[in-house]
Here is the input.
Amino acid sequence: MQTSVKGQRVLITAAASGIGYAFAKAFVENGARVHICDIKKNLLADCKKTLPHIGTTLADIADPAQVDRMFEEALAHLGGLDVLINNAGIAGPTAAVEDVTPEEWDRTMAININGQFYCARRAVPLIKAAGGGSIINMASSAGILGYPMRSPYAASKWAVIGLTKTLAMELGEFDIRVNAICPNAVEGPRMDAVITAEAQAKDISEKEVYERLVEGTSMRTFVSTDDVANLVLFLCSAAGNKISGQALSVDGHTETLRG
Here is the structure.
């Protein structure tokens, strides 16, 4: 099975920690050249210590001008582009829809879907010039099932899947594959914060939120960042060269999203 990504030129957003960092590390360890962005300067500096050959840009992908600068720096570092991983995203508010503010809604959409569009529109000409490649958009189980008390997040992730399927149709003739990854609960600080917010919003214990989330999966489990990274590596390798337009879950099979 041809699963090598050696020599690929890869741009990953929000990759200084969490799932994004797992992606960057996995690609570097498998011979790819990587450029990342993040909004946290200190975390980018830490990444340069552990992955010294990666390129870094301090950027908020909700701002088109900062996205343009990121692409200029990525192109200078990589010399071209084969893979875009639209990883940046936020959890958004945990609240009943009538308690969500327009500002919270707008910020969630700005990062979770607008940012993916801003990056895709810049990446596509570069990947076309490379003769083909892959775009991976991070969605969620919430983009398949919906998520009570998380309306901005769920709406944005449904939009990600719509964007993914549309771009797969547009770009297939150029040998560009476009897929969405749909994790559910991924172990780490971000999920810990989500659990804390849901416990407070519902006036229950964090343990109860955790147990409900685990019980909502057929395999009764959270997933690790490495679980998600392994799927992304496969999709970007020759082994995944006919997989496009898919919303692929790596989540232990989510049955419900009622935390």
In short: The CA atoms of residues 57 and 73 lie 7 Å apart. The chain has a mean pLDDT of 93.
